[in-house]
């Protein structure tokens, strides 16, 4: 039987594809520190579970395709507080930021259309664009330049008659980049000059470790109707399993098209939306505490990696990942070897091989992405394990 070509070309997730090796290592009794995935271990605020318990409806019915007003109002209030004025109609609730990204790509791309993305990028972008039959046009960024964007002229050279959108993750997964106001203004100029939409994936907005203020693309007034923000409670409130995110945009045409996709899937999960609405009442002290914790974890992992001979990386300013270049030719083989053949005191680590974070063939082969969503002591052990593994790796 032959299925759709797009399904065959859909890339496997580099974050999850080595999990069978991880499971096999666990079954041998080896402890594996899971640095491959961005699963926060911080407790989800209790308000979420209390809202679920308080539900006393007798029928778990369908809800609005746009999402529950109770949650939408909380999101509008949250955005107004961060100086991005919204109305109810500017928000559509989705099954995680993932569904929001998927719909955005389906709306943006006809077959063969192009989306410009700084690479390395979050690998699901490639899957969503492939399923929309679009193509990625990468802006290659490097650790040496702090993963910052090249000059505006360089980016403008990538524009063709098929270019439809620019997609950025800010703060960035996997690089930890936080784009400056100037960089975002340059993207705004390019978008205006070429009639493009900008998809701003800002699911890590609260995870910024710099003292200077964070700029959202939603803060740039002159592109108010050219920006679609992808958001989620997964990281903000450590609620990945709730699967609640949203699309935010002032572009009425985009939102009316997005609503048709939302209608076709019925509605987002009801109870989880009630839980999510309660999460938006979480005191700001929770966010501050989590931010401080992650900043300390970042320092531990970054300082640890810097001390390993041959490892090259840049201190991330946001999110909770480090993209590191290792002194190996093939990082995927190295990670598999760490899971299959290596252990230090019956412990090893998993990491995501870098190649799947790039669209340019051959890039990222020596790189891995590591998440620091783990306890500090575990991160210290993980660094020790990596250093030892690199020193004895036969590959
Ligand atoms: C950059 C980025 N965007 C979007 C998502 C999707 O998040 P979710 O679907 O859990 O809301 C993730 C998840 O890791 C991510 O790293």
From TrEMBL:
InterPro entries: Aminotransferase_I/II_large (IPR004839), AspAT/PAT-like (IPR050596), NHTrfase_class1_PyrdxlP-BS (IPR004838), PyrdxlP-dep_Trfase (IPR015424), PyrdxlP-dep_Trfase_major (IPR015421), PyrdxlP-dep_Trfase_small (IPR015422). Pfam families: Aminotran_1_2 (PF00155). CDD domains: AAT_like. Residues 32-385 form the Aminotransferase class I/classII large domain. It is an enzyme of class 2 (transferase). It comes from the Bacteria. GO terms for biological process: amino acid metabolic process. Gene3D superfamilies: Aspartate Aminotransferase, domain 1, Type I PLP-dependent aspartate aminotransferase-like (Major domain). GO terms for molecular function: pyridoxal phosphate binding; transaminase activity. Its cofactor is pyridoxal 5'-phosphate. Its EC number is 2.6.1.-. Keywords: Aminotransferase, Pyridoxal phosphate, Transferase. Belongs to the class-I pyridoxal-phosphate-dependent aminotransferase family. This is Aminotransferase. The lineage of its organism: Bacteria, Thermotogati, Synergistota, Synergistia, Synergistales.
């Amino acid at each position: 039987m032959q299925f759709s070509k797009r399904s065959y070309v859909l890339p496997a997730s580099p974050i999850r594809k080595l999990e069978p090796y991880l499971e096999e290592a666990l079954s041998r009794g080896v402890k594996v520190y899971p640095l491959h995935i961005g699963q926060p271990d911080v407790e989800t605020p209790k308000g979420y579970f209390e809202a679920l318990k308080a539900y006393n409806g007798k029928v778990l019915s369908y809800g609005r395709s746009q999402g529950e007003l109770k949650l939408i109002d909380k999101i509008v209030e949250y955005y107004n507080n961060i100086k991005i004025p919204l109305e109810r109609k500017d928000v559509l609730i989705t099954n995680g930021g993932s569904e929001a990204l998927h719909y955005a790509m389906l709306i943006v791309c006809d077959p063969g259309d192009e989306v410009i993305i700084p690479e390395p990028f979050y690998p699901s972008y490639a899957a969503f664009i492939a399923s929309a039959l679009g193509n990625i046009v990468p802006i290659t960024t490097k650790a040496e330049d702090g993963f910052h964007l090249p000059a505006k002229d360089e980016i403008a050279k990538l524009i063709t008659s098929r270019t439809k959108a620019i997609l950025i993750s800010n703060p960035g997964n996997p690089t930890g980049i936080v784009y400056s106001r100037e960089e975002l203004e340059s993207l705004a100029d390019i978008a205006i000059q070429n009639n493009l939409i900008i998809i701003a994936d800002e699911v890590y907005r609260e995870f910024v470790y710099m003292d200077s203020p964070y700029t959202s693309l939603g803060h740039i007034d002159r592109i108010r109707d050219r920006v679609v923000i992808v958001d989620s409670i997964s990281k903000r409130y450590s609620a990945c399993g709730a699967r609640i995110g949203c699309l935010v945009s002032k572009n009425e045409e985009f939102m009316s098209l997005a609503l048709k996709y939302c209608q076709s899937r019925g509605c987002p999960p009801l109870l989880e939306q009630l839980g999510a609405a309660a999460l938006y009442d979480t005191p700001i002290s929770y966010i501050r505490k989590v931010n401080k914790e992650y900043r300390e974890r970042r320092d531990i992992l970054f300082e640890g990696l810097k001390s390993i001979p041959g490892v090259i990386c840049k201190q991330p300013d946001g999110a909770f990942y480090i993209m590191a270049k290792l002194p190996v030719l093939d990082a995927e083989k190295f990670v598999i070897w760490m899971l299959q053949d290596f252990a230090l005191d019956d412990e090893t680590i998993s990491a995501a091989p870098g190649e799947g974070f790039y669209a340019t063939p051959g890039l990222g082969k020596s790189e891995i992405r590591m998440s620091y969503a783990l306890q500090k002591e575990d991160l210290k052990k993980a660094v020790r394990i990596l250093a030892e593994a690199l020193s004895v790796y036969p590959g």
